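Q: For a teaching handout, I want to show students what a protein-ligand complex looks like in token form. Below are the inputs, and the small molecule is PMT. Please produce the holo structure.
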Amino acid sequence: MKVALGVCGGIAAYKAAEIVRLLQDRGVRVQVVMTRAAQEFVRPLTFAALSGEKVITGLFGAGAEEPNIDSAVEHIAVAQSIDALLVAPATADTLAKFANGLADDFLSTLFLATTAPVVVAPAMNVNMWAHEATQANIAKLKQRGVRVVEPGAGYLACGMTGPGRLASNEAIVSAALEALGATQDLAGETVLITAGPTREFVDPVRYISNRSSGKMGYALAEGALRRGAQVILVTGPVALKAPGAAEVIQVETADQMRDAVMANLKRATIAIKTAAVADYKAKQVAGEKIKRAGPMTLALEATADILAEIASVRENQVLVGFAAETQDVLANARGKLERKQLDIIVANDVSKPAIGFDSDRNAVTILTRDGGAIEVPETTKWEVAHRVLDAVVALKQRKAATIRS
Ligand code: PMT
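A: Here is the structure, written as tokens, with PMT included.
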């Protein structure tokens, strides 16, 4: 699959470098097209090095050599070879050209010449975005089927605050993948995901818990939905907004999480246990608030091992666990994979404070039952989620191939 990534002249142009990498991670070839203004912000060499392809910087070649018939019709060749055109950041000027059919540079010419789906991610000053002319152009483009990844609100490089900031790279890449139709590889699947911490009460006001924010599990839920799956999200208490299309079951304790998972397991074809379930709970929960009276000993007992229970009763579900480890990460994770009879375990080194628990970033190794190991170096949880889902899809494909042969 190939995407032409149009980069326009704005402060956010540098963010397009990460978009190249994110698309490549999902197996997409990227042909970068830069407007003249974009080249004032970022050098074409940056994109050439990242994409491994020549960067298109002008309508008649790079200017070094005499224009010839190849450079004169290059926009047609690119227009026919791409599966989607993504423009990020898209400036007011380029949007105006697109909306009004002007074709005075490579990008605007490519826009007119391609029949591939188009996604634009605008970024500009608050007033430029709010201007009637820009809004009319956006409305016109939407009406013609162009997908718009709306800009976010916040502090802008121009010193103003409000809408105009480039959407997150993850949202932009998701929109591009959706446009490519590449994201439907989980269509027909029902994914049961657990996320967040559990709380094990000691008395009516105190509990034992952990630092899980739910971000990893919610990223998996979002990713699975985008790839066409139905999602049942069993979530401990977190401060996140659940993805709208997921069926959400709120729980608090490990026992409640166990009951919710077991009640819904039959409906699932894939179960992913990201939750940081407490391993111990109070043997006895005090009915009244415990009074301070010198040292005290709290008697604990083990909670139900939900993952092991699923493994013992599952039918055909693919079962994915996470292993949060601080030492001998891979060996311990592989031990859990074998003991709990999982298909995949995601080994998560949680000894590094900046990643893992309560962070937007993570670094993991995805271990499979057949001895495979896929290392995912530090990146966003969105990216980790997709790499885990890639591994699930690959496993399902291998299983289907074995059944056929
Ligand atoms: O929520 P975030 O802030 O985004 O952080 C993400 C994370 C660090 C919580 C996540 O990436 C992660 O590593 N989750 C697993 C946490 C954990 O409890 O690991 P564990 O090694 O203790 O448990 C192994 C597996 O058994 C896990 O899949 C867990 O869900 C499951 N388990 C554990 C205990 C229990 N009683 N029942 C279980 O099913």
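A: Two things your students might notice: The pocket of PMT is lined by residues 196, 212-216, 254, 273-277, 279, 303, 305-307, 321-324, 336, 348, 350, 356-358 (CB under 6 Å). The mean pLDDT is 92.
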